[in-house]
Amino acid sequence: MEPYRTKSELAAARLRDDIRSGMMKPRERIDIDALGELLQMSATPIREALRQLQAEGFVVNEPHRGAKVADFSLEETADLYDLRELLESRATLIAADHLTAEDIAELQALFEANLAAIDRNDHTAAMHLNEAWHMTIYAAAQNTPHLMDFIRRLWNDPRSTTWVVPGRLQQSRRDHSAIMDALSSGDGKRAADLMGEHIRAGKNLVLSHLMGGAGK
């Protein structure tokens, strides 16, 4: 059973997912009335949610103009992806020596569920399944707990949120398939190299997307 969540928590989760999935763009204004109508709740929990998201860095509030999605600078976004590439490649290399047959089966199930979500154009489900797949790999690097902690912090950073950009779903499908093959065959070095390439490719697509939106 899912834990109880207040209306403000539900609103924050919905906004966070919409920003992470790319449905809401950097600098996009947030219409509290329209959002309240969509979520069937009053403005009060939505304002509470916006305060929480502002504290997390997803939203900024401008006096007399209201809330908007935060603008993610190219430099900060590039730096974050560079750190992710370094840490997640390392975690994949370590994890490859600890993944059990059950772990591989779980990864395969998550991979296939993600493909199904992509095929039905369910960006939110695909985003969550993508994260679950990655974290299942990194969790196997069990003798380096601080590494997993740092990776989670980077994934929770707003600059790591833009996931659905043109070309990224198709790129992710190919990359995950190749990483699965390497992990299944026990080739940790290749899996780590592929993970680094995967994150680097995502970085390039996200930066291209952000640059294309500059000034809009």
Question: What does it look like?
Answer:
Strand 1 (59-62) and strand 2 form a beta hairpin. The protein has helices at residues 7-21, 32-39, 43-56, 74-96, 101-119, 123-139, 145-156, 168-184, 188-212, and strands at residues 59-62, 66-69. It is mainly alpha-helical and 216 residues long. It folds into 2 domains: 7-69, Winged helix-like DNA-binding domain superfamily/Winged helix DNA-binding domain (Arc Repressor Mutant, subunit A), CATH 1.10.10.10; 74-212, Four Helix Bundle (Hemerythrin (Met), subunit A) (Up-down Bundle), CATH 1.20.120. The model has no long low-confidence stretch (mean pLDDT 88). The chain has a two-stranded antiparallel ribbon. The N and C termini lie far apart (43 Å).
Extended strand count: 2
Q: Which fold name corresponds to the CATH topology of the largest domain?
A: Four Helix Bundle (Hemerythrin (Met), subunit A)
Count of helical regions: 9
Structural class: mainly alpha
C-alpha-based Rg, rounded: 18 Å
Which blocks of ≥5 consecutive residues have pLDDT under 50? none
How many domains?
2
Main sheet strand line-up: 1-2
